[in-house]
Amino acid sequence: MTDATPTPPEDRGPEEPVTGDEPDVVETSYEGTHAIVVGGGVGGLVAARRLVLGGMTVTLIEASDHLGGTVTSHEVGGLTLDAGAESFAIRGNTVATLATSLGLGADIVEPNPEGAWLHQVAGPAVPLPKLSLLGIPGSPLAADVIAVLGFGAAFRAFLEALLPGTFAAKSVTLGELVRRRMGNAVVEKLVAPIVRGVHSGEPDSLDLDRVAPGVRAGMRRTGSLARAVLEVRTARAGSAVAGIRGGIYRIVDALAAELERFGVEVRLNTTVTAVDEGRVMIGDEELTGHVVVATPGILGAPIAAGHLAVLATLVVDQPLLDAAPRGTGVLVAAGAPGIRARALTHATAKWPWLAERAAGTHVLRLSYAERLDGLEEIARADAEALLGVPLPAGSVLGFDIVEWRRPERQEHTPNGISLVGETASGTGLAAVVAQAETRASDLLRDFAP
What we know:
Elements: E1 34-38, H1 42-53, E2 57-61, E3 73-76, E4 79-82, E5 88-89, H2 94-101, E6 108-109, E7 117-119, E8 126-127, E9 132-133, E10 136-137, H3 143-149, H4 151-158, H5 174-182, H6 184-199, H7 208-211, H8 215-222, H9 225-236, E11 241-244, H10 250-261, E12 265-267, E13 274-276, E14 279-282, E15 285-288, E16 290-293, E17 307-316, E18 329-332, E19 343-346, H11 347-350, H12 352-358, E20 362-368, H13 375-387, E21 396-406, E22 418-419, H14 422-425, H15 429-446
Parallel strand pairs: 1-2, 1-16, 2-12, 7-18, 16-22
Antiparallel strand pairs: 3-4, 5-11, 6-11, 7-8, 9-10, 13-14, 14-15, 17-20, 17-21, 18-19, 19-20
Helix pairs in contact: 1-10, 1-15, 3-4, 5-6, 8-9
């Protein structure tokens, strides 16, 4: 099974949370210590929760009318569905620990192990190699690898085992490492389609240790990138991602309920006009305390600098999809003729709980890198081509578009302000949750009585 089932931009980031059994009551007194969290996305919610559990009084400010940011829901074809991420990386147990502490542990589910397919530039669609990690083959001469690369490029990848484990070990990006060890064909034909669909990024722009933690060390230890991939996969044991029965957005609902329970003041539809060390301005109103920023743009990292992600969701009535002809979805190689989508997730094939709820209809999620006119028809045609099943216009029962911008990462925060969320952690729930837990715990330690 590959861990590359297409999803909206999901998980990266090796940081582990400072967490464990969550306290039901506050054990440390920070009387008079106030924290102001600006931004109510998942990073802001997790930080606010950690701070209030640590004993601080917390005010959370959100400019929109809802909490959770891109982790939210929408109604399509009579179904309530995730409008953003529909899975999370299980590495480090970060999100699972949070979900369990929120009472959602029994609802953590693994996806259908069938795995995804690859729509190639030329040739038929093929299943993704089973023994792979982000497209890096653990067995380069396996038949499913040769089916994508051809024998020559697969043999070139196989020869990397003759290189010393230190060769290319200082590579910064995923693309650099794989290209130098296994050749360009592995990057372009396997790794690139997967990371475009999963991370909404390019192999040469993704930090190796964030998207593939453990691979560098494993390569040095075993002397081979392929063996390191097998080692990391064995250590993970099972699916690399998981979901929540009912939808990932339930984590946001549970976080919001806990903040209310612990007395966090939440202000929606509130615009922050200025942020400085120890001070937040809302028009003429001044709030003082330790400032945690959990929203892009406010500290000089404009949202517009990030890349656009567009999710088109179709709910269709087509019994031929009951057989899941392309497994849990399809990743698209760049340059595939006639296809505008980067990836398709057959959500009702991926998640049995959703198939139950959909009662015979099918949910298809297609990701795009740009806003397109007439996207409903484009998405229908793309889904038809990618799944190899006719989807006439009359089979579409519901359609919706969700757009967001992934912000550029911001390494440094001015004026001693704590920064959480995607601008600090990179994309993916595992990265966001872990980094927010760590920063909030740092703040509690720094200002302990």
